[in-house]
Each structure stands twice: as structure tokens, then as C-alpha cells.
Specification:
Aminopeptidase; 23% strand; 6-stranded mixed beta sheet; 4-stranded antiparallel beta sheet; alpha/beta; elongated; Alpha-Beta Plaits
């Protein structure tokens, strides 16, 4: 089965690159609904060309979601990913889509428009070779890079109907799949103090900035890299003038944790913060918006299935954990078998050297197709 799929994908590998190029040329920053919807319209046409029934799911603030279904036998399998990017409109002018040897460069190409192209190529391969497969649902979302607030409910609803979730986010270095991801969160800590003249009445004031500095020292101690817990105070602001005791100061903090238990402990520590200086008070907003994707038995079993598919073609698959989150975190937290990192091999997510390895595209498409076929009810 996998050998036939691989032969087809290799014979048609040149067809994958134009799909990638079409999507990359349509810049789609998460916060620009019109731009994202232009990319979504082109994606819908590509999916219809692969034999899918496509539905646009309107979103009032963010780009419209694209859902595609391909008929099959048995319980569906969900292919999941996003086509919004971190790159603003106009990035192509300074980071043009280009090929250099075996690498194809462009904004959003690795994270993760090439992964979408691989899913389309896999669907085409299944159809062209007549390989039996389960019903396939593809859900391509539009706000993953900014937290998935508008798409999470749809993701979880679609995933609940499926036997497994295959996430087309980029692979780890060397092509390894992702069987664990950290949970991700963001807190905003605001300190309220008492304004006063810094020269005439400094004793009547209570500096929000000084209190925030003390709180940052406490927050820093929450980091425990040996346990995979990272805490980063990334933005700090406060005060109005040098000669005024600061009345307000705030910090925005990125937090990551590898397990639900660790995430809950970090969250509790933030909510337990208390002021150290008289006259100041704290307010806290935010929390973990993506639960950790832990390597459960269900996830390990799905990786074993993928490894068996690869082995039948004489290939080996690696696995590992990622510090960033994806929409697969949501489905894994529901207890659903979820396998991430099935997308393109390359490097440079969110960076100027973002690229994919063209020579690996056919194999990755065949792997996805073979993994889908392994769920066929008649197999």
C-alpha cells in the first residue's frame, strides 16, 4: 500500500510545489481578515480540485475557517492545521518566494502552508491509486498564531467525531513527529500604586514600578527549566514622567509547562501573588490558553501506527517534544489520539530563513496518505 502511494507521490512531486507557491503568495496575517479570506478562497478551490466537498465557516472577526470532507468507509480521521501566519502584508517584498537548490523559501511556507499542500497531495494520491481509506475531514483554521480563540470550539467539535487527529504542523528537525507539546499561556500583571511628586513628596507615593520589579523577581523564581517550565517577562511598561512616582506599571509574561499538573501549579502561583509594598495592589489577567499535549498511551499508539507505515516503506520515524503549542494541544487534552508534526521538513518558523526541503515533500505526502489508509475499516 505505502509503496504504491510513495511511487505516485514521487511521480507527481512536481505538482506539490505549485500548491505551496499559491498559498504562500497569498499573504495571510492572522489579524487581517480580508487577506486571510483571500487565501482561504484559493485554498477552497485547491481542495475541490482534490475531490473534496468544501464548506466555508464564516467568522465575524477572524478569517473564515475552511472545512473539507472526502468520503470513505468507517470513522473519520481529522487533518488539522492553519493558514494564518505571523507575517504582515508586504513581507513577500523583502522575503520573496524563491527556490535555492533543494530549499523553497517564503513567509509562512514552513509554518505551515506546505503542510496543507501535503494534505492535498495525500488526498490526491489516495484517490489516484484507488487506495481504500476512512472518511477524511480537513479543518484549516485562521487564528492559530494568536491563540485560536475563534476556532477552538470548532476544532474540538470536529475532533470529537473522529478516530484520530493528524496535525500538519511542521516536523521536528530531521522529520521527527511531535508526540508532546508544552501548554502555553500568557499573564498580564498590573500594579497599582500611588502617584506623588518624586522630589517634594516621595514618601507620600507608592511606586508601581518598584513593586513590579519586586514581583518580577518572584515570578522569575517560578521558572524551572529542568522540569520544562519556562516563564518569560517579555513586555514591561509603566510610569508617566521621571519626576512622578509611578501610579501604574504592568508586565506581560509568557509561560510554558509540559504537563497539566505543572501548568496548574504555575497558574496557582501567579494567582497567589501579593503586594510587598504598602499602598500598592495587584490585578492579574490571563492564564493558560493551550493545555499541554502530553504523551499518552493513545498518542504513543498513534505514533507506533505511523512508524509501522513508514517501516513498510523502509523508513524510520523519530519522535520528540516541542516547546510551542498548536491546535493539537486542544484535541490531545480531550483524550483523542493526536499526532503532530506531520507537515513539512524544513526550518525557520517565524524567521527570515523560513524554508522547506523540497526533496522530502513526496515522502511526507505518502506518509500522510499511508497513515490515513491504515484506518480503513476493511484493512
Amino acid at each position: 500500500m505505502i509503496k504504491d502511494l510513495l511511487a505516485h507521490c514521487e511521480a507527481h512531486s512536481a505538482d506539490i510545489v505549485p500548491i505551496i507557491e499559491t498559498l504562500v503568495r497569498l499573504e495571510s496575517p492572522s489579524t487581517d481578515k480580508a487577506a486571510v479570506d483571500r487565501c482561504g478562497a484559493a485554498l477552497a478551490d485547491l481542495l475541490r480540485g482534490a475531490g473534496a466537498e468544501v464548506e466555508i465557516l464564516p467568522q465575524p472577526q477572524r478569517g473564515d475557517l475552511v472545512r473539507a470532507r472526502i468520503a470513505g468507509r468507517g470513522r473519520p480521521v481529522l487533518l488539522l492545521g492553519h493558514f494564518d501566519t505571523v507575517w504582515p502584508l508586504g513581507t513577500l517584498a523583502r522575503m520573496p518566494l524563491r527556490r535555492e537548490g533543494a530549499r523553497l523559501y517564503g513567509p509562512g511556507i514552513f509554518d505551515m502552508k506546505a503542510g496543507i499542500a501535503l494534505a492535498i497531495a495525500a488526498a490526491r494520491a489516495l484517490g489516484a491509486t484507488g487506495t481504500p481509506h476512512p472518511p477524511i475531514t480537513m479543518l484549516w483554521t485562521t487564528d492559530e498564531e494568536i491563540g485560536s480563540a475563534s476556532s477552538r470550539a470548532t476544532i474540538e467539535s470536529e475532533a470529537a467525531r473522529c478516530a484520530a487527529v493528524l496535525v500538519l504542523e511542521p516536523a521536528l528537525p530531521g522529520g521527527a513527529l511531535k508526540t508532546a507539546r508544552k501548554g502555553c499561556g500568557e499573564f498580564e500583571l498590573t500594579v497599582h500604586g500611588i502617584a506623588a511628586h518624586a522630589g517634594l513628596d516621595p514618601g507620600k507615593g507608592a511606586s508601581a514600578i518598584h513593586e513590579l520589579a519586586a514581583q518580577i523577581a518572584v515570578i522569575e523564581r517560578l521558572q524551572d527549566l529542568t522540569r520544562g517550565i519556562s516563564v518569560n517577562v517579555g513586555i514591561v511598561s509603566g510610569g508617566s514622567r521621571p519626576n512622578v512616582v509611578a501610579e501604574v506599571a504592568r508586565a506581560t509574561i509568557d509561560v510554558r509547562a509540559p504537563t497539566r499538573e505543572a501548568a496548574e501549579a504555575v497558574d496557582a502561583a501567579f494567582r497567589g501573588l501579593h503586594p510587598t509594598r504598602p499602598g500598592t495592589r495587584l490585578t492579574l489577567q490571563g492564564g493558560f490558553d493551550r493545555p499541554p499535549m502530553e504523551r499518552t498511551e493513545a498518542i504513543a499508539g498513534l505514533f507506533d501506527r505511523a512508524s509501522a507505515v513508514a517501516a513498510s516503506a523502509g523508513r524510520e520515524l523519530g519522535e520528540g517534544a516541542a516547546g510551542g503549542g498548536s491546535d493539537g494541544n486542544f484535541t490531545a487534552a480531550l483524550g483523542l489520539p493526536t499526532l503532530d508534526g506531520l507537515g513539512a521538513v524544513g526550518d525557520g518558523a517565524h524567521a527570515a530563513h523560513e524554508h522547506v526541503e523540497v526533496d522530502t515533500l513526496a515522502w511526507r505526502a505518502a506518509l500522510i496518505a499511508g497513515l490515513l489508509a491504515s484506518f480503513n475499516s476493511s484493512a
